[in-house]
Batch of 3 targets.
Target 1
Amino acid sequence: MVELLPLSDIAPQTVEALLDDAFGADRFGRTAYRIRKGTDAIPALSFALVEAGALVGTIQCWPVAHRAADGAETPLVMVGPVAVRPDVQRGGYGRTLMAHMLAAAETKADGALMMIGDPEYYGRFFGFDADATGAWDLPGPFEKRRLLVRAINGHGLPIAAGMIGPR
């Protein structure tokens, strides 16, 4: 039986071990970690997927912001990492986690969603695209086509140039 639980129900060291297995222990140097540095995941949008008592996947969302050159700040929710245990990847667990998070975000997100991800996958299945992010910048290297957004819960997308960082 598969259960979706609040991520806070899972021991932090268990989550970290899954993230190491899915992304490698060197994951902390990635740009995504710089963007959300010093913040805590949003409990209402972060979930665990448990099967037969074992953690098989997680999704975390983070409070970040777009800061324009004129000082305007727009709250965003950064999606990710979406992590699935390597031995069960391609079993639909990631899609289940994303769908559950998106359903929660429809009423609980306090900003549009943004992520660094595969546009073919996240666009096709979840409605993310890079149309509004061309002038955005991140605190580290990234591929422009992989900086994705999705309006949700009535929150619009900033299109002006600006830096994404923690809030």
Note: The chain has four helices and eight strands.
Target 2
Amino acid sequence: MKAAILESAPGELIVIDDVEHDAPGPREVVIQTAAAGVCHSDLHYMQGKYRTRLPTVVGHEAAGVVVDVGSDVSYVAPGDHVITCLSVFCGTCEYCLSGRLVLCSKRGTRRARGQKQRLSRGGEDIHQFLDVSAFAERMLVHENAVAKITPDLPLDRAALLGCAVTTGMGAVGRTAQVPIGASVVVIGAGGVGLNVIQGARIAGAGRIIAVDRLDSKLATAIDFGATETINASEIDAVEAVKDLTGGGVDFAFEAIGLKETTEQAFAMLRPGGTAVVVGMIPLGTSIELPGVDFMFEKRLVGSLMGSNNFRTDMPRYAQLYAEGRLKLDELVSARIGLEEVNSAFAQMEAGSVARSVIVF
């Protein structure tokens, strides 16, 4: 099968090559990939900002159809439509048993070192990326890395539920638990930021301020539910938010992954407010905050994949889409072939797209 392989990082292009997947072991499933979103998280690993074992088949946001299952698989069967998620869970660790599946230790969900790995090329192991490796014509994953959906949901849209939607919507509904009428600012109107914005709209937030440096993205943010926009390339975003709100917002979401914007998000809060870091801040980065602000009960919290419980969250998001309340069609900037993946990452780095989707 054809797959997109990252052989070294940083600075290397992805190579399209033939790889093989092993037969499914106990609790493993083989999925015919239908579509996979091109996510900024992959770019972080390609740029060396985060580390992964190489070579690896990248990609983690996908949807497809189950074609084979191993022994002991009970959740899915061949023919089922599924979404993959990197938040694979074991179901037995302390985090899983206390309801925080996103922090799972992943015990027993991966093949052990020294054991034949799920992917190979010419007899040599290819490492699995984020427990998924979605940029391939087929995926071999643990059954707890998938969520079932109904066949009527288009798979090129369903793929986006696996990361962008779950991360943004979950940051609002699960991590921050934004109440009706709250004031919200979202820094970054890319794929994840747009889902934070529509998550705030669905939650009933009173004011939703979008901050970005591109007018085109800010226009899209309005379509997704922003009530006001600020172009950070033209004015001081922190002062603008304070002026608009009379002192600050209840919730600030950082959806880029930078030191500067994280500190800005915290500075945009009113007393008692909460800043949520949704973006992936590069390894080794330290955040500096004024200590006195904690005297006013301001909080800074992290959000991993929207604090999701994806087996229950994704079907609910699919229902919201079916009801016309969740925008998925508008998130897709382009549908591309696997061989166009390097161009898609270049466009993403330039900030010109919300989400490219590889269609197999």
Note: Residues 217 and 352 are 8 Å apart (CA to CA).
Target 3
Amino acid sequence: MQVLIKSATVIDRASDHHKKKRDILIFNGTIQKIAASIEAADADLVIDKPNLHLSPGWFDSSVSFGEPGYEQRETLANGMAVSAASGLCHVAINANTDPITDNKSAVSFIAQRTEAAAVNALIIGALTQKSLGVDQAEMFDMFQSGCKSFYDYKRPVDDVNLLKLSLQYTQPFGGLVQSFPYEHGLSPKGVVHEGVQSTMLGLKGIPTTSEILRIQRDLGILGYTGGQLHIPTISSAASVALIRAAKNEGLNVSCSVAAHHLLLTDQVLDSFDTQYKVMPPLRTKEDQDALIAGLKDGTIDGITSDHNPLDIEAKKKEFDHADFGTIGLECLFGVANMTLGLDEAIDALTGLRSNFGIAQTKIAVGEKADLSLFDPDLQWTVDAKQLPTFSKNCIFNGHQLKGKAYGMILGEKYHLNS
């Protein structure tokens, strides 16, 4: 198959064509030619879009699709289609299902359901059996079935010895252990960031200390055991400082931040809108500034949508009783672009690829086509009802974003929005 991309501005710091407008010819999934102008009358597909830009393929390290068990929230088929429409080439699917993805058969089920999709699915296996935090899951068997990372989604590893053993156990085969940074005992009934806003609104708080203590502990264990540790969705300035220091000491640690923490702070809670109830909670402007700075200087390795579709019944409750979580795949690029700037947004959307076992690529002749297509200047207002995800629990509903995806190309597979 021959694909011709016309007049696209290349955004790739590693490429000789960075910030240049180029035609790109792709043959059987490989970039064959890059030039100012290419004629290919026999091309099977010609892509010519207004203000077209492209970059190396984006990766989202934390998405939940519901299936199996919560298909009413989102199916694997629709979730993968939404990912492609959102410009993503790779997504890591959480073990946030029923049954939990904690064995080889469960991994195989998801792999079979996603193999035909244009987007590459990386399956995250549970760290412990049924994500209960007691006994290790079948990590090596899952690794042999394709899992590169292990994570009990949004459940902290309370047993410090279990974390130690997991980091040791995964070293021989290069597995990536994830540990959610939350000391639940400090705020067992907390629902928002602990601070001035929580006091004024009368809502129970979750202090930044609950995140900081766990990161300190986990980094201490990592220094003792070695291995690879990923800390998902950090939210505070102190966390950024801790991870920056750990990296300077040579520890093999990576981390991510959720898109909503870059755009929103706890000031939006005045509305008592449960769409703003997320874990970790929205924090202060000072924390937000530190997170953005951490992305720009490389302390934070990447940005995630932390996409978590929920039933309407889970959100249409009093704030204290509503579930934590938001969807965000469709908004991921718009938020990253608007808060970071274009070059830094692309870095944030590709920075975690190698940590999760995805080869870094560049836009050059002979490279596999691994491309996200987008318009970085398009202004649009989020309308949750119009988003293609089944569930509509979108924290960005009503907010204006800058930048929207046209689609993606991965090898010989592609998706283009109409």
Note: The two ends are 21 Å apart (CA to CA).
